[in-house]
Structures are given as C-alpha cells and as structure tokens.
Amino acid sequence: MLKAMYKKTIRRNLNNALKSTLKVAAMGLLLLSTNNALAKSEHIKTSSTVEKVITVKNEQGQPVKKLIPAIKVLPGEVVQYTNLFENIGNENVDNIGVTYPIPEHTVYVPNTATGKNFSITYSVDGGKHWGAPASLKVKGKDGKTHPATPADYTHIRWGYKASLKPTEIKRVSYQVRLL
Amino acid sequence: MKLLIPISKSIFYTFNSIVKVVVNVLITTSLLLPIFSQSVQAQGVTAGTVISNTVTVSYYLGPVTGTPETFETTNTFVVAEIINATLTSLDLNDVVVPTPSIDRVLSWDLTNTGNGTESFNLTTVDTLTGDDFNPEVQSIWLETNGIAGLQSTDTLYQPANPVQLANDASQRIYVRSNIPANLSITELGNVQLIATSTTAGITSSSIGDVLTGVGDVNTNVVVLVQNGRVDNTSSFRISNVALELNKTISSVVDPFSGTDVMSQSLITYQIDVHATGDANGTLENLVIEDSTPANMQFVAGSITLNGVALSDVADADKADFGITSANTATINLGDIVPPSHQIITITYRVN
Q: Which of A89, B48, B119, B253 is the most buried (most CB within 10 A)?
C-alpha cells in the first residue's frame, strides 16, 4: 500500500517535470534552463526541481503559496529547490546526505529548509564547517565575529536519519530569493 | 542660463566709472545639481544571468567507512528582464521666462530602473491642453560633456540614435524651447518629455505583461511600466522680472571741506539696485562689481550696503575689495525677490 503511494508520488512528479519541460519549450525559452534535472546511480535516483514560489488567493480568499515553473524569474522573487530521491536498488542505503549550495545572486529564505526525518545543518564558509543556525559565526567587516544570519549561509545539508529501503522516496526542499 | 537685463545707467559726472553686474543664474533653476544623479539602488540581478545550482547526493551502503558514493545534478534558470524606467524633472519650480524669448531649457533625468540594458526613444509634446500657451520645442539634447547645464558641446539627440542605458544608469536630457511673444505675466506653457522603450511589442503592452524572448540574451521580458513608456511634464511661466541699476555720485568732499573735484577729493558713488516685476521670479546669485575708476584710489572700509558698513576682506559680510577681482569692489547680494531696492555706496579718492 505504502509502496504504491510512493510510486504514485514519483510518477506524478515525473509527469510534472515533463509538463514543466514542455511548457518551457513552448514559451521559447530553450536557452540554458534546466528547471528539472534527473540523475541516478546504481542505487539512488534523484530529481532536482526549481520552481517559482508565488502567492495566490484560494477559494476562501486567503493567500496561499503556489509553485509554478521557473520561466520568468525576476529580482526579488523566490524560487524553491526540491530534491526527491528514491532507492532504486535492492538493498538499504545508509547515511544519505543531500548538499545544496545557496546559488550565486540569491539569498536563503529563513526557515524554508524542510525534510521529514532529516537533520538539517548549514554552512557559512563554503561547506568546510557545518552546524545548527545558532552555532554559526561569521567575521564582519570590523574584523569581529558575529552570529551568522540566514543571508550568510553558503550551503545547506540534509542528513537522512534512517536507512532508505528499496523503493522508498524522500523529499527535501528550500527556498532562495533572487537578489 | 542668462536673461537679458534692461539696465539704465545714469552717470552724472566727468569721471568715467563702470559698474558691472554679474547675475550668475537669473531665474530659479536647479541646474546646479550634480550632472549625473547617483543611482539609488541596484535593480537586482542582471537580465540573462544564469542561476545554476548543483546538488550533491552522497550515501553509503552498509557501515560508514571510507569515501561515500556521490553524484551530482544541476538545475539552472535564467533571470528574466524587467523593463522599468523613471523620468524626473530637474526643474523643481516653473521655469520663469520673458515673452518672447528663445532657447529656454527644461531638464530631466531618465533612469533605467530595470535589470537589463534598454534603449529609449525620446519625443516631446508642446501642444498640451490645460495650460495657457504652447512653447515651441526646438530640439532635445543629451548631457555628454560632463559640464552641468546645456552647452553646444553636449550632444543633439537624433531619433535614429535612441538613448541606451545600462541597468541603473541615468541620462540627463535638455529640451530647448522658444517662447512666443505677447503673452501675459504668470501664463503657463507646458512641455512633456516622453521616453519609450525600443523593445519590440512593448508599446502595446500593459504592466505585468510578459514578452517572450525579446529581452537581453533572448530572455523573457516583464513589463513594469505601461506601454514601456514614461513621461513627465514641466512648465514655463511668463515673468517680467527685471533688474535696474543706477549709479550716481552722491557726494564730493575736497581737501578743504568744499565740494570741488580736485586731487585728494573724496568721491562717493551710490549704486541703486532695483529688482522689479512679479514676485514669482527670483534673481539668483546677484553680484555687483565696481572697478576702481581711472585716476582714483579706493578708500579702505568705504563700502556700505543699505547704510551698513561692509569690510574689505573676504568674510561673511559678502563684500570685498581686490580679493574676488583685482582693484574692484565686489558685493554679493545673493538671491533677490522682487520688488527690492538695495543701496550700495563706495568712496574713491582722486589721485
């Protein structure tokens, strides 16, 4: 039952990925854009997606976040990176780590890194050291050390706390704002 | 920018004495602003920039020993172009002009507040309704010589060469107009400057529209200014502000307490400065220079303004002798709003 649900999830995501790609092509923006990227090893398959985050009103008139293809992204707008990974082998995979940089020209949107049953740590020095937000320090222009702010983050790392069983799929995501 | 000033001089004595009036800027303008306004803020990531992001996935099979298995995948997207601009008048007040007059200048700054390089066509409208007369626009000029204000060494705008601006960049624009004859004081004449993006299809667009593939590096364009067009209107106002100077000899004292002109006689000149006309015009930075007449010497400490003695050194009282200009009394009256009558006296000794 559970497996079936996961399979449905990945099929839906792949369908979405395909749709997005088609939309991008339809709008003539073939240039350099890879909104969806797939990769796999012998054991793990991942799908990394970038989508624009917009706010729309729901039927009750309340604002809700919605993800749309990252076709026209403007300074100040927010995009979400989502990584789905699936165990496509037939043995458990352990200590899975997913590392995303905060891309150049963007800044991390606080409290948007999510992932169920993951430990999430951050780096402010290009991935040399990792820690919880409160433990991170940066050197200011005055030469003194200050507590780091989300704008200082250079990388985020998700560590899956359990073993990923065959056919299991997990998801992590975070958002950045284009400067 | 100078107006012709009607000056009537009455010199009643045989000594030829010349008074010179320097009116740096006669009417209220803001031409003394820096030539290029500083951009207020960066307008964000440049259009066409590729935002690339590579995720690394690592794992172990079984116990954590040695190097983990890793692989990467990369997402990219391209920053779209915003088209946005502002057009700001540099004439904070109506520009006061006589009727008729020629080559009167209005000034604007056009700033590209989008995130890409954009070109703009410039046009003007001088037949607007809602004003009292139509100025006659002669030409559009671009500030290019680095000297504040319009000079002949700036560049005449040609419609074939739109103004190209990088993101955040500004261009100062001057519009030259002639003012018709026989207008009445306080009448207003408006001139509108229009800057329109040259991006294909933008003139029929609305705010928020997306134009596909016509932006920098073939990006999509998001229009943030209606029809890709900005405009701004400035006004000329007819004024009869004029400056009249009268220079007379107010007293002669000879060495024998008489009133004869001879060697060592003290001659006191009085310069009356009358500013007349409607109070809407301001005479700015009015400076009076009186050079020492031939065969005479300046009497130290003899300059007065409205009965108050002014020192000869360069200090806060705004008068000096021989410092601003050699062998010349200089009195800086500053800004004068009509009607105004100022009286200057200066005494010289006959050699």
A: B48
Class of domain A2-178: mainly beta
Across the interface, do A50 and B68 touch by the CB < 8 Å criterion? Answer: no
What's the pLDDT band for B111 if we cut at 50, 70, 90? very high
Amino acid identity for residue B9 in this structure: K
Task: Answer whether B55 sits within 8 Å of A99, measured CB to CB.
Answer: yes
DSSP, collapsed to helix, strand or coil, labels residue B189 as strand
Q: What are B113-162's pLDDT values in tens digits?
A: 999 999 999 999 999 999 999 999 999 999 999 988 899 999 999 999 99
Q: What pTM, to 2 d.p., does this model score?
A: 0.65
Domain map (residue ranges) of chain B:
19-27+241-350, 82-238
Q: Which residues in chain A touch residue B59, judged by CB atoms under 8 angstroms apart?
A: 43-44, 93-97, 164
Is B175 a residue whose pLDDT tops 70?
yes
Q: Helix (H, G, I), strand (E, B), or coil: what is residue B105?
A: strand
Q: How far is CA A137 from the centre of its chain?
A: 24
CATH pick for B19-27+241-350 out of 2.60.40.640, 3.20.20.70, 2.60.40.1170, 3.40.50.1240 = 2.60.40.1170
Contacting residues of B for A103, CB less than 8 Å apart: 51-53
AA letter at B41: Q
CA distance A43 to chain B (A): 9
CB contact under 8 A, A48 and B69: no
